[in-house]
Amino acid sequence: MDCYTANWNPLGDSAFYRKYELYSMDWDLKEELKDCLVAAAPYGGPIALLRNCWRKEKAASMRPVLEIYSASGMPLASLLWKSGPVVALGWSAEEELLCVQEDGAVLVYGLHGDFRRHFSMGNEVLQNRVLDARIFHTEFGSGVAILTGAYRFTLSANVGDLKLRRMPEVPGLQSAPSCWTTLCHDRVTHILLAVGPDLYLLDHATCSTVTPAGLAPGVSSFLQMAVSFTYRYLALFTDTGYIWMGTASLKEKLCEFNCNIRAPPKQMVWCSRPRSKEKAVVVAWERRLMVVGNAPESIQFVLDEDSYLVPELDGVRIFSRSTHEFLHEVPVASEEIFKIASMAPGALLLEAQKEYEKESQKADEYLREIQELGQLVQAVQQCIEAAGHEHQPDMQKSLLRAASFGKCFLDRFPPDSFVRMCQDLRVLNAIRDYHIGIPLTYSQYKQLTIQVLLDRLVLRRLYPLAIQICEYLRLPEVQGVSRILAHWACYKVQQKDVSDEDVARAINQKLGDTPGVSYSDIAARAYGCGRTELAIKLLEYEPRSGEQVPLLLKMKRSKLALSKAIESGDTDLVFTVLLHLKNELNRGDFFMTLRNQPMALSLYRQFCKHQELDTLKDLYNQDDNHQELGSFHIRASYASEERIEGRVASLQTAADAFYKAKNEFAAKATEDQMRLLRLQRRLEDELGGHFLDLSLHDTVTTLILGGHNKRAEQLARDFRIPDKRLWWLKLAALANLEDWEELEKFSKSKKSPIGYLPFVEICMKQHNKYEAKKYASRVSPEQKVKALLLVGDVAQAADVAIEHRNETELSLVLSHCTGATDGATADKIQRARAQAQKK
Questions:
Q1: pTM (whole model) above 0.90
Q2: Does residue 36 contact residue 49 with C-beta atoms inside 8 Å?
Q3: Is the pLDDT of residue 718 over 80?
Q4: Cα–Cα dist 281/294, whole Å
Q5: For 762-768, which contacts have Cβ atoms below 8 Å and span 24 or more sequence positions?
Q6: Which residues form the Vps16 C-terminal domain (predicted)?
Q7: CB under 8 A, 24+ apart: contacts of 360-367
Q8: How far apart are CA 484 and CA 469, in angstroms?
Q9: How many other C-beta atoms can be found within 10 angstroms of the C-beta atom of residue 782?
Q10: Contact by Cβ (8 Å): 428, 389
């Protein structure tokens, strides 16, 4: 344990800081770090280097090279810089490299050097050029702040949703500020700058002077300033050699430290962790590194070569040409266990486990001591927590073995925290590997979340590792393996040296029917890369036609889209394609396409019936479909023609079409309708009233109701209305008029072709029993019983039924008998039935 704490350095009485090596850097740098623009992403992110040839007195003849490395120094990308002079580099939260040029243009590159997009910081920046720039991170995303040659600030708080904001002017500012930084407070981004002994705070509307609380007198200039990772604290380095530390609002002072060095530092960053005991600031000069806090003494390290500081959530990464180290405050659990002469429960449990492995009785003594104090649960928890903060796997295992040993003596210790820590450490150790190069700490990992970590592995194209992690942690397929395979497939389609067939086959073999994977999204990426044929092949594997069709339309493969839509059976999808085709093709080609797709043609006809009648007519004409064309003209004659002449003309066209279709029945019926229309017009002219558009039967009925019986009979002869139908029409019309005398004359005019039962029924319908009885006596014998029952003569109906000896008629009469009034009749029927059965 004593050796283990050899690299611990006390800062005051309450905290220790330690620095350990993450990687031995193997990168082959062609330039010194001091001659390059450097940007390193937080959370163990990549490092970008660009030789800063534009700041030299004489520009170099060779173009600089933009190089991107992992945190372990593994090369990720290298590209020749062919654009303008660069002022600053920085990484976005999505690990995109932002390159701010002197003309205000910001070029965005991917992790592998692929150009993504660019945007401008505005015309004012273009005219006045960029003096300095900062890339910062807020809750909205990643932002860019620019200092122009006119000593004005312009910023955007989120480059993903670019909204430029010009900050207020600083009164009397004639030269660049000695230092400046961005502050984020209450969802608003501020600029803090130093001009001589004064500090100015700029927000979107005002410029105000601020004074740090408790600042030592005699300050004539601020040389450097640093804001903490969470924007809660601020540090100021003055020309007197003092470092002021306090809250970002400058209203509260934490401490002030005299470092006795007046030279401006190269870098100054905060080094603290969540729930830190002793917040500290790390200051770097050419060959010296100093850690200062609220303590009379500082921690100092010698730098053997040019180094660069990267502030992190819980510490500071320090890399140079040869090494990459991590400086942080020793966590409480680790301090409790490993500090010299510690009697903490975790320290005793670790010793007990070590003695147990040696088969020493001291293990029992240590364990009893912990149990007597009732601190065994705390000891296990301390060991688990400390294991998470250790970088070396051997020490992690030692602490976890101790925790496992202690758990054996607890009855109900929940295993979740132990199991989860084992899983997290296995993941962390995998990504910390030199070939992966993501040196996340446990605190950073928890802050970042597993989903973001998987995204970053995918971004680095480390698909196998990402899938192994998903399977190990048993993440849902949609969130884990499926999503990663989809990203892999999107990357695969960009490999233009492989044939479309091979790529499509490889993707299908790997993905199969994996849930949550959309082949249409992969096909869209292939189309975006200019590989249309590959996109079509991939869409063949997409089971959802609703996803296939929109992309096929976008790729201008409309006929294939129509076939897919028809196969799906989704009429809405077919209509979508048809309307797209109609706008894309000329009329002739569109109709020819429809002729090859009967279902689509049928659906389009349905659409035209409601929306485009003229198009429907053209379709029938092109197909020589005379039957449907005739039907079309019939509907059109009534829908659009108001004049009788126009209607007759349309009907004549329909009749001609029916003759061409060899449908003589429809043609004759249409001609009859034309004759009827002409006759109805003549009747209106001669008799008045309304006849037009009535049916033939209604026309006859109207004539009878009007007393024009001869006209009605003539119309019946002209249109060959059968006698039975004419008698029915006349019977109903006279009954409605209640012209009983005329009805009686009509019944006696000749023998009724429909019999006389309808006369009885019509009279009873009009509630005229007297007239009904006149016709009941004339009803044929087989209908006599029914007629007598209609007029209510149950007794006579019974006599007739008994006479006919018809069981059906007897049952019918019996059903009409009521208890009191028809009792004798019912008995009579029953006796007749009994006699019939005896015989």
A1: no
A2: yes
A3: no
A4: 10
A5: 762/731, 762/732, 762/735, 763/735, 764/790, 764/791, 765/735, 766/735, 766/736, 766/738, 768/738, 768/740
A6: 517-835
A7: 367/406, 367/409
A8: 11
A9: 12
A10: no
